[in-house]
Design brief:
Blueprint (H helix, E strand, L loop, with lengths): L1 H40 L4 H32 L9 H4 L5 H50 L27
Helix pairs in contact: 1-2, 1-4
Length: 172
């Protein structure tokens, strides 16, 4: 009887952890969308969003670890001896309604995680494009003020000219 109570307690805890994972992934998706807006329009706000994402990802990792531990405890309770027992392997041991809830949560988590990965890849592409644009702009600005190859110091007295590419005409 005590074993059955432990199994029920662990199953309920598993559901609770899965719900928290689901909600955390929803929050991660919202933050990732906010990150995209910051990348495109508000670069000064990006640091805070990235820090918030890091904290959330740490929390999600802790929830995943907790979920794995509960799954292992449940698998031992029902004598499933495997290193890689999954939630799916445990579903036949749950009541139909419980199994349905756990399965739906698990599938929802998988779907949200996939969506978060895709959004993150898109944000990485935007960030890389912005960095390339910034580098090209920097290179262009530097090239404007670099002297031409045949440049000689004005102190040499041979010729006196403006830096290459400035394009400023001085009229007296």
């Amino acid at each position: 009887m005590a074993e059955n109570n432990k199994f029920t307690t662990d199953r309920m805890e598993l559901e609770e952890v899965l719900v928290r994972q689901f909600r955390s992934l929803q929050e991660l998706i919202a933050l990732t969308k906010k990150e995209r807006v910051c990348l495109l329009n508000e670069p000064e706000a990006i640091i805070q969003v990235v820090e918030d994402k890091e904290v959330l990802l740490d929390s999600i990792n802790l929830l995943e670890d907790r979920c794995r531990k509960i799954v292992q405890e449940l698998s031992l309770s029902v004598s499933l001896r495997s290193e890689n027992t999954s939630i799916r392997d445990l579903l036949p041991f749950f009541k139909a309604e419980e199994a349905s809830r756990v399965k739906n949560l698990s599938e929802g988590i998988t779907s949200l995680a996939s969506q978060a990965r895709e959004l993150n890849r898109a944000n990485q592409a935007i960030a890389a494009t912005k960095m390339e644009w910034l580098k090209a702009t920097q290179d262009f600005l530097i090239s404007i003020f670099q002297p031409e190859i045949g440049y000689r110091s004005p102190k040499s007295g041979q010729f006196n000219r403006e830096p290459a590419g400035v394009g400023i005409e001085i009229r007296v």
